[in-house]
Amino acid sequence: LLRRLRQENPLKQGQITPTELCQKCLSLIKKTKFLNAYITVSEEVALKQAEESEKRYKNGQSLGDLDGIPVAVKDNFSTSGIETTCASNMLKGYIPPYNATVVQKLLDQGALLMGKTNLDEFAMGSGSTDGVFGPVKNPWSYSKQYREKRKQNPHSKNEDSDWLITGGSSGGSAAAVSAFTCYAALGSDTGGSTRNPAAHCGLVGFKPSYGLVSRHGLIPLVNSMDVPGILTRCVDDAAIVLGALAGPDPKDSTTVHDPINKPFMLPSLADVSKLCIGIPKEYLVPELSSEVRSLWSKAADLFESEGAKVLEVSLPHTSYSIVCYHVLCTSEVASNMARFDGLQYGHRCDIDVSTEAMYAATRREGFNDVVRGRILSGNFFLLKENYENYFVKAQKVRRLIANDFVNAFNSGVDVLLTPTTLSEAVPYLEFIKEDNRTRSAQDDIFTQAVNMAGLPAVSIPVALSNQGLPIGLQFIGRAFCDQQLLTVAKWFEKQVQFPVIQLQELMDDCSAVLENEKLASVSLKQ
Amino acid sequence: MAAPMLRWVGRGRLWTFARVDGGSCHRRGAPTGSTSNRIRGQSSVAQQPLYTTQKPRKGEHKWAAVVGLEIHAQISSNSKLFSGSQVRFSAPPNSLVSFFDASLPGTLPVLNRRCVEAAVMTGLALNCHINKKSLFDRKHYFYADLPAGYQITQQRLPIAVNGSLTYGVCAGKKQSQVIPKTVRIKQIQLEQDSGKSLHDDLRSQTLIDLNRAEGQLRVDANISVHHPGEPLGVRTEVKNLNSIRFLAKAIDYEIQRQIDELENGGEILNETRSFHHQLGCTMSMRDKEGKQDYRFMPEPNLPPLVLYDATSLPAGADPQQVINIDQIRETLPELPRVTRERLVQQYGMLLEHSFTLLNEVGLLEFFQNVIKETRAEPKKVTSWVLNTFLGYLKQQNLAVSESPVTPSALAELLDLLDSRTISSAAAKQVFEELWKGEGKTPGQIVSEKQLELMEDRGSLEQLCHSVMEAHPQVVMDLKEGNPRAINKLIGLVRKATQSRADPAMIKEILEKKLSS
């Protein structure tokens, strides 16, 4: 849509004003409240920003592609004056005094902040089911495509309790974009938290190279793997948002200084014959659903038939990745969570017999089981007696995993093509049969190695499953070759013609949706 | 070894781990009062006994102590080590706290260039090897004045290692002899300062000031004793020593305590202890149940700190983005050791005098300014500056900068002395006048008080004659064979001249008159 806005820009042409656009999104947010996509809706802020944007358009001083465009931000990015909870009791009521760099950059471009989106507590999870504000519902649960398929299935029961998870942990951001309540949303991606829900919600989910986008203000999960992620309805939109966000930040010493081509304008590839696509053989795991496997294989065929070279490559250390990720992730979590002690901000218990007792009770009350479990594991791995055997070993394995990718790219591969998830989204009741840890280990299988290597990766919606649910595939690029990666993804997106979600049945007021859909649909097939 | 670091004030903190392997301690029987010498022996060079106060008797055990110091000194910088917030002494509590300093979620450390330069300079001054690549680590523990729950430090690969510092130890009967010694520096690391806890026992609450601790030097001493040739003993750590005097006392006490404990069949626990200023003893802190595990982890938000030198500096590197060790080396001032050697060479002064000149802030500069302006011999200048001038300062507890006597005034005074315009006794008088700070020059004082040396031999002879006549008893003594009596006469004549006459000339005239 942003691309269309740029080309046709109804805002510029005055067909719709930023305030009207903002109000439409606010009304959709209200209509889709049951999805639980937002923790905080910043209605007043958004309307005020829209008003200012409108003035700029009237004066012909638009700030660019994002001026007047409604966006949402995952609730683990600090927003000045707006509560930032990480979906945790620990930070309920915490109002940061500053904006995360990425939030500030969006605002500087004139974007409208619609609100803060739901997630797993402190982004620890792969379902967006484990936050203190309850699970996020996948808008596709209510889509015409899914409903029709279910009607054909004689086994389908109570529809209302059969809603699907969004994936996570950026499920709120994915649901918000998928339900047209905004045009782009920030997620965070530590092991797949942006790409996983993007795949389940039929969106583009982009994880930039580590160091390309500032983490300042992102409440960390794993500092050495976290990156702000971008969720949009098409690749061009993701590129526009990336263009606004990328670049060195003096407040984040891990951002790189090398100049990168800005803005991120993506050429339309006419020809893929010079491309080499790598298919990592280790990603063909028994747990992979036959539908995803088949789509993956079709995608490879598509590239081949269009003249690209398609190679099977090996990433031999893949099978160690999840366990290695577990050690590194929990260790950093244990460290990062130490600051939440109830003294300065966030939750504090009533116990005051001693500082230590206060710490213990505050942390007991403030964190859920998942967070506490990871803190416990992490502290175990960091103990002097365990450090060499766990943390140092995991770091070595991480290096081997990163080298696997380097070797694959050195063999001439431009991008790797893999599944994003094992299967399409599952119903909530199905999902919670396994615990968070098991689920995370399963669901991050194709995504987290990329975080260990710091590479850019994007999930692109490919097709609907037999059940009428989106399936995504993942492209992985060379470090800091984000533009090349997105260019390939854009070509692929154009070929696959992923259908627009049909939510008419969901909304009472169809006209609002339909009218909005003119703006909102990706419509790349036309 | 802490002295050079004392000047370091400001935010951010520089830790020096100085490992001081002790000289041997000989001990016999009951403890005696001479422990202080032994302690100074501790802060001496490794493996070779510096000196001992008592020789062990045959068959008795010889004890050696090993002392390692962890010195925390603040870096003189305008802003904190990892944040842009200011550093200012005695600012109101929590008035200089950035979001990072308060550990707000999502904030990240940004390394202060000035602090890195200061650390490199310190490393160079302490003869360290500067690591071209160093790393930052997180050290975890829960404490109210540590808002992040961890401290960023350099545990594994610090910025500088393997240094040494030469210093002087007083010895001899009057402690006037200085023996140069060398201490090894294990490492220098950049470390974030914790906050300051202010305990209000009355209301049983603790207030936290995240401006961070104020411009101080803090030392933790690790101490153990063992028999030479045997494995090292179990060590204790005496924490938070904030003056050199207490440091010495604490180490002194702790070594003695450990020896007593072991000789009485006890054992030393690996524990932290505090030093009680009033009682002069160390006490177990018992604040940590069991062993503290700091769960060190690499700091993921700071990339490795890479330093360059002339050979490794990448072509076209932005000078604002890189730190060049060689460039810092060029800005290094003359080090005290070199200055001392130069003073000994250039002015032929004793090594201990060079130590004294450097140990007093501003004294060397004063000395050099006097030297520049006077014709007097350097030895004379040294003597006047170190004895007369420093003596007056000490007596009145003044700093060099507070002295009422300027280098120029002293230089002029020494010129008058050198040209034999006044006697040294008169010079002392002039100095006393100068010290009053009335703005008179030595020349003015000399002429007002008529202190010029009596060069007129005739008048002096006259004076001697009068004195002899006035004191026949003394003359008689002298003639009866008491040669010392002449000193009395000299004294009387000098008094009569208001010390303006050269005693040698007086003596000569007197002797001549007596023998005639």
From TrEMBL, chain A:
An annotated GO cellular component: mitochondrion
Amidase domain mapped to chain residues: 23-486
Swiss-Prot/TrEMBL GO biological process terms: glutaminyl-tRNAGln biosynthesis via transamidation; mitochondrial translation
One Pfam family recorded for the sequence: Amidase
Active-site residue numbers: 74, 169, 193
Listed InterPro entries: Amidase, Amidase_dom, AS_sf, GatA
Keyword flag ATP-binding: yes
Enzyme Commission number(s): 6.3.5.7
Spans annotated as Disordered: 145-164
Complex formation: Subunit of the heterotrimeric GatCAB amidotransferase (AdT) complex, composed of A (QRSL1), B (GATB) and C (GATC) subunits.
Name of the molecule in the record: Glutamyl-tRNA(Gln) amidotransferase subunit A, mitochondrial
Taxonomic placement: Eukaryota, Metazoa, Chordata, Craniata, Vertebrata
From TrEMBL, chain B:
Matches recorded under InterPro entries: Asn/Gln-tRNA_amidoTrfase_suB/E (IPR017959), Asn/Gln-tRNA_Trfase_suB/E_cat (IPR006075), Asn/Gln_amidotransferase (IPR018027), Asn/Gln_tRNA_amidoTrase-B-like (IPR003789), GatB (IPR004413), GatB_Yqey_C_2 (IPR023168), Gln_synth/guanido_kin_cat_dom (IPR014746)
GO cellular component: glutamyl-tRNA(Gln) amidotransferase complex; mitochondrion
Molecular function as annotated in GO: asparaginyl-tRNA synthase (glutamine-hydrolyzing) activity; ATP binding; glutaminyl-tRNA synthase (glutamine-hydrolyzing) activity
Domain of life: Eukaryota
Top-tier EC class: ligase
Localization per record: Mitochondrion
Annotated GO biological process: glutaminyl-tRNAGln biosynthesis via transamidation; mitochondrial translation
EC numbers, comma separated: 6.3.5.-
Chief site of localization: mitochondrion
Catalytic activity: L-glutamyl-tRNA(Gln) + L-glutamine + ATP + H2O = L-glutaminyl-tRNA(Gln) + L-glutamate + ADP + phosphate + H(+); L-aspartyl-tRNA(Asn) + L-glutamine + ATP + H2O = L-asparaginyl-tRNA(Asn) + L-glutamate + ADP + phosphate + 2 H(+)
Boundaries of every Asn/Gln amidotransferase domain copy: 365-514
Keywords of this entry: ATP-binding, Ligase, Mitochondrion, Nucleotide-binding, Protein biosynthesis, Transit peptide
Keyword Transit peptide attached: yes
Family: Belongs to the GatB/GatE family. GatB subfamily.
HAMAP family membership: GatB
Subunit structure: Subunit of the heterotrimeric GatCAB amidotransferase (AdT) complex, composed of A (QRSL1), B (GATB) and C (GATC) subunits.
Functional note: Allows the formation of correctly charged Gln-tRNA(Gln) through the transamidation of misacylated Glu-tRNA(Gln) in the mitochondria. The reaction takes place in the presence of glutamine and ATP through an activated gamma-phospho-Glu-tRNA(Gln).
Protein name according to UniProt: Glutamyl-tRNA(Gln) amidotransferase subunit B, mitochondrial
Organism: Rhinopithecus bieti (Black snub-nosed monkey)
Gene name as annotated: GATB
